[in-house]
Amino acid sequence: MSAEKTETGWPPPEVDFETLSPMRRALKRALINPLANYLPAGWVRALLRAAKSELAAANWADPGGWRSMVLSYDGRARQIADRILINAGTMAMALRNRKRLGSFLIARLIDSAGSGPVHVVCLGAGPGQIIIDALARSNPTARASLVDHSADAFAFGRELADRSGLGDRVRYIQADVRGFQEFLDGPADAVTMLGICEYLGDEHIVSTARAAADVMPDNAPIVFNSLSFAHGTDRFFRRVFGLHMIHRGPEQMKQLMSEAGFGEFRAHGEPLGVYHVIVGRKLAVAGGG
Ligand SMILES: C[S@@+](CC[C@H](N)C(=O)[O-])C[C@H]1O[C@@H](n2cnc3c(N)ncnc32)[C@H](O)[C@@H]1O
Predict the structure, then answer these.
(1) How high is the pLDDT of residue 4?
(2) Which terminus of the chain has fewer Cβ atoms in its 10 Å neighbourhood, N or C?
């Protein structure tokens, strides 16, 4: 499951992954994905509009935005079209797997960082569901700064954090990830870039990760993800949802992060093969210090 450096005891029993039976996989490959990918996009869009699909509307309004993510995470859709896309769609299942895997790994990193107050900086955090889950199950002195350029993500996120009793441990910073450093109130013991790199060009990933490295001590972790075509419906997402994701495998992602000064990577796969969540460490600069 993991691309390399497979850990013993993986997958951890704490992570409740969603999987597909071989039969469902075969059905998707042979019938459902080709239909989704090759039916005329105009028809499918009209159908989704008529069915009042909230998922489609969220993607049309803000492709790759936080609202469609929240709908996929939540899994409880009101409209029948959304129920199908969200519960049975490989991409939505993989997103929930990535969220569970991400929060599990971040919680583990927080706990292994010692008993002091750990500060996690989340870039492109959306409302922060992943870090809120991680904070809820790790060292109670840890806190997080969430950076996103969308203000309405934060209104939703604040409510979520308050409901989990974490309102005073989560700080929301409305900013582009390009200039996030100037808004921080202290160094970052860990940085996450989950669910954002697939919307950024190579140079933007490297410059953002370099800026992250500048506010991290040596050996501090960075958490990010790869994205493969294993979901089988990229053509559907592009034509119907207007969603243009950049697919990069674990090796490509590691290469970009190594250009920004990170190394010692460990890639953790989810069972649908769509995402790897990768943890890297900030390398000490030779002769630096
Ligand atoms: C797909 S959502 C992922 C949210 C969250 N990280 C997760 O995985 O659940 C991507 C988020 O990145 C934010 N985003 C994209 N580009 C950004 C940028 N250049 N600066 C700040 N936020 C950005 C979007 O507003 C959105 O909330």
Answers:
(1) 46
(2) C
Q: Which atom of ligand 1 is nearest to the CA of 102?
A: 8
Please compute Rg for the chain using Cα positions: 19
**CA 193 – ligand 1 centroid, Å:** 9
Residue-range domain boundaries for the chain = 22-92, 96-282
Q: Looking at ligand 1, which residue's alpha carbon is closest to its atom 2?
A: 66
Residue 124 CB less than 6 A away from ligand 1: yes
189 Cα: distance to centroid of ligand 1 (angstroms): 20
The Å distance, Cα 281 to ligand 1 centre, comes to: 22
Cβ contact 185:213 at 8 Å:
no
What proportion of the chain, given as a percentage, has pLDDT over 90?
88
> From the CB of 127, is ligand 1 less than 6 Å away?
no
Using CB atoms within 10 Å of the CB of residue 152, give its burial: 0 to 12 exposed, 13 to 18 middle, 19+ buried.
Answer: middle
158: Cβ contacts below 8 Å, ≥ 6 apart: 167, 170, 172
- Enumerate helices (H) and strands (E) in the chain, giving the number of each: 12, 7
My answer on whether omega of the bond before 11 falls inside 30° of 0, hence cis, is yes
> What atom in ligand 1 is closest to the CA of residue 129?
9
The DSSP annotation for 80-114 comes to: HHHHHHHHH-HHHHHHHHHHHHHHHHHHHHHHHT-
> CATH second-level architecture of 96-282?
3-Layer(aba) Sandwich (3.40)
Taking the C-alpha atoms of residue 216 and residue 281, their distance in angstroms, rounded to an integer, is 10
**Does residue 1 carry a pLDDT above 50?**
no
Q: pTM to 2 decimals?
A: 0.95
Of 1-5, 177-181, 186-190, least confident by mean pLDDT is 1-5
Helix (H) or strand (E) holding 247: none
